[in-house]
Amino acid sequence: MKLKLIAPKCGVGQATNLYPPYVLATLAGLTPPDIEVVIEDQNIKDIDYDEPVDLVGITVIVHTASNAFKIADEYRRRGITVFMGGVFVEACPEECLKHADSVILCEVEQIWKDILADYFSGNYKQRYELSERPDIAGLPLPRHDLVKNPKYLTNNLIMISKGCLNRCQFCSGGSHWKGQVKTKNIDDVIKEIQSLDMNEPYFILDDNLIWNAEFAKEIFKALIPLKIHWICSGACVDSVEDKELIQLAKESGCLAMLLGFETVNEKTLKNSSKGFNKVENYYKTVQNFHEAGIAVQGSFIFGLDGDTVDTIHDTVQFIKSSELDMLTLNMLYPYPGTPFRTKLEREGRLLIDENEWDNFTYNRLMFIPKNMTREELEEGFKWATSELASAKECAKRVARAIEYDYAPDYIYKQNMQFRKHVLSMLK
């Protein structure tokens, strides 16, 4: 039997995903050895529909839903069974069942072999669900060999924990994980790291790597002897007031960390169930990382309830004056399954579009803002992204990285990717 696992590409106007599809490498590692597995990433190359396969599995997020549906429809037209899974599938199962034979509405670490056995027997379920998120300790290593490609920013992806304790109103991860966090054994993490190229930087995919300060310190201490370099894709701002933790992160090889600032409006943070972010500490947080020699990527959302036109300008001012090294800027999107989308529906503020997934892009407003007009938010977002992705501002960030030796190569690539994304998004 031959199983093909597919990562669809993002829609038009979205940033290309330049990291390997870790979730598919994990599934491949969980697959029995008598099943041949191939992985295709549409961000890297076109899907080979003519390759003979028995079963197709597609991972889906809102950014990739439109392309996922097209891929699934083509395989089903050819008589191939298609399974779908992912955060989007969990939030929109009925929509996905229009294009798939079966939908997986949960994490599959503990039931993947059962799902494959059901397929073999011809008695697979239309839906697979679990009431609890499964543990991820003691699992086989992901099949990194199936996702290596020189086009990726790095082939060294690892995940130490899954989930987040926080349940921010706008976050699809909060709805998905419901305040749960599952962690790998430290020995398993070390084993996975050593299976990869230890001369290449590692990218840690956790939603909130430092959700537990003591656990994070244990991880960092275990990494120090390996003498590797790594970058973190996610951490909450409230977790990093511990200077010992930041210093241990540096000693363990941390080059850069993404922090979810979201907004500089304190009222907005409270309204979004993210009041644990303290705006008065933002500058000090960035300074603490810089003093340790760690670059900071700031993540911001425009349009949260409570935000005003002034918030947009204040956010841009903070980004410039705090000397953040890299940026992720998004207009607020009402993700399916989130409390924010439910609230919009209840208040009659959700803008209905029957082709929403085909038209998904971060500069397309899908709701009526609370304290701005639609035009003010759209124009404010366009101004902010254009200003911060300008050649001048990107050059400043790269120059500072070179001057202070904050991972200059990585910061250069991220700023060029950020600029390319904004130019594409705003045409």
What would your notes on this structure say?
The chain is an alpha/beta fold and 427 residues long. Helices cover 39% and strands 16% of the residues. The protein has helices at residues 22-30, 65-77, 87-91, 93-97, 112-121, 172-177, 186-194, 213-223, 243-251, 266-271, 282-292, 309-322, 339-347, 374-388, 391-404, 408-426; strands at residues 2-7, 36-41, 55-59, 81-85, 102-104, 127-128, 157-158, 161-163, 181-183, 202-204, 230-235, 254-262, 295-302, 326-331. The strands form 3 sheets. Strands 2-1-3-4-5-6 form a 6-stranded parallel sheet, with helices on both faces.
Unreliable stretches covering 5 or more consecutive residues: none
| Main sheet strand line-up | 2-1-3-4-5-6
Structural class, from secondary structure content? alpha/beta
> How large a portion of the residues is in β-strands, by DSSP E?
15-25%
For the secondary structure, the number of strands is 14
Q: Between the first and last Cα atoms, what is the distance in angstroms? A: 44 Å
Helix coverage percent of residues? 25-40%
Secondary-structure element pattern, one letter each: EHEEHEHHEHEEEHEHEHEHEHHEHEHHHH
Radius of gyration: 21 Å
Number of helices: 16
What oligomerization state is this entry in? single chain
- The coarse overall form would be globular
Biggest β-sheet description? 6 strands, parallel
Average pLDDT confidence is 92
